[in-house]
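Handoff note, outgoing to incoming analyst
You'll be picking up this chain. Sequence as last confirmed:
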Amino acid sequence: MNMIRSSIIMLLVLTIFTGIAYPLMVTGLANIFFPWQAHGSLLMQDERTVGSALIGQNVGDVRYFHGRPSATVDSPYNALASGGSNLAVSNPLLQQTMIERNEQLRAANPDADNATPVDLLTASASGLDPNISIDAALYQAPRIAKSRQIPLDAVKSLIETHTEQALLPFLGESVINVLKLNLALDEYQQQINSQTH
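Most recent structure output, in case you need it:
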């Protein structure tokens, strides 16, 4: 009888501590010290939420930078169905998919003067990657400049400004958050338009 009573008391104590007190404490501390991150790293434009800095978006408009392909179920960048394609490099379906993506990218970016960056051909493991490489952004820059009728140097300058440097060279590579870059692109376009009117 004592064993059952001790077990029930221990279950209640651990449930209260690990199931209620600890999560509340961590949530409270996160809200105090990291409020932006604790609320989803949401990005705003014109006082409305346009997305999260942590989750990529499916962008098809030629005037915007495009992110990596997404292999999430139902729709691209579906945060409720995070996951990769899980196809091996030797899988013919993956090879065919990459050939098709390369053809589509080449058709959409005819003025690109370098090889298609691999991150524009392959989906990330989560299917939600919000970042692209510097090469992937520069690959798309001529299309952006042409479609928006702005100088290519201005687009390259925005890319440089919004590059998030790797903490250390051996701890990853420098990347660009696609949504932040697209928001900066809109802001730059608005400034240009206001100066010409």
